[in-house]
Amino acid sequence: MTQSKSLKAESILPLPDQDALIQSEKLIKLIKASIHMKGGAIGFDEFMKLALYEPGLGYYSAGSRKFGADGDFVTAPELSPIFSQCLANQCEQILNELDTGTILELGAGTGAMARDILLELEKQNSLPDQYMILEISADLKQRQQCNLRETIPHLFDRVVWLDTLPKEEITGVILANEVLDSLPVKRFKKTSSGFKEMKIGLDDDQFVWVDSHAEGDLLKNIEELENDLSTLFPDNYISEVNTQLGKWLNSLKGILNKGVMIFIDYGYSAGEYYHPERMDGSLLCHYRHRVHSDPFYNVGLQDITCSVNFTAVADCADSIGFHVNGYTNQTYFLFGCGLEKLLANKNELDNKSQTQIAQQIQILTLPEEMGERFKVMALTTEYDNVLKGFAIMDQRVRL
Ligand SMILES: C[S@@+](CC[C@H](N)C(=O)[O-])C[C@H]1O[C@@H](n2cnc3c(N)ncnc32)[C@H](O)[C@@H]1O
Q1: pLDDT of 28 strictly over 90
Q2: Is the terminal CB of the chain with fewer CB neighbours within 10 Å at N or C?
Q3: Could you identify the atom of ligand 1 that is nearest to the CA of residue 140?
């Protein structure tokens, strides 16, 4: 997501329309019922799952615009086709070296990345056997199908939509842009009486944070973090952890028999993520290009995200047999994938288009925009080559 204004939720966020408020009310009722059913509180991961993915009501499952200028945020593929053209160059190297292959994109948004990757690979005579899209949101799946049928009718038959991971193993590339940050996380707090899980309960029928003793996978994860970071979290320190990451990666490992998985997302190494000064974690909500940190506001109408701990991704990947092939920031990755050459090809465009492209490139690559905040990680299985996206600068030592 590109940078948006940061606000307190109750200040001047635009008001949703009546239909949106009715949908939000239905979802709130459903979450409250779940809280009652679970004895008075649910984990933040459960809340996030319902708020984002409850069929027909959750933010990603229901029909709000989400992406683009009239939505809530802008992602890199929405901002500029050049982002996807660079990724296509990376895919071309892999598909070429594997001799054949499939591309599987997880969570494809509006389908912009699929469209621009396929068009670029067609130009390079390197189309994949199939372009699979795993989309858990029925609304987004429909939008992707309309978009691709209209913009690339001649390639439409190559695209296959899945609701779950493919039954058969694939050889090729798995791509996920801004998917990791959408996976549900647990929240924790360090207190003088130990670690607490910050759950969601109800007070006077309103959502409130409720502290309960951290236990199970969450406690194990936090204790491992303190151990690995060789430091104790200060009192009142709040942060997040994805306790399901290993399980999720393992399911992807199970379907990739040979090839490369590429994650692009905002995030840090564990040392930066859990820096003692980052006292309130990285939970953020996006609503109409405003950013705030109140997940109880406009439930189901706003995105909820957390930055990615790339050290955890690398550790989980390593423990299940993936090789961490490369890690770098978005700027180095895009330049490694031939950004400069792609730009040189745009020289014949008129001045207005060139200015527009220059602005897009600035947002994609300037450190204070997406360039440094966004990282790229490649996990490989049965594939040992140096990937072009990491050839300029590989920052695995930072993990
Ligand atoms: C912030 S959007 C990014 C969309 C798109 N990749 C882009 O860059 O514009 C997050 C996407 O991740 C998808 N998603 C979340 N959890 C997922 C999962 N477990 N498997 C596949 N997709 C998932 C959502 O449905 C949504 O399409």
Answers
A1: yes
A2: C
A3: 27
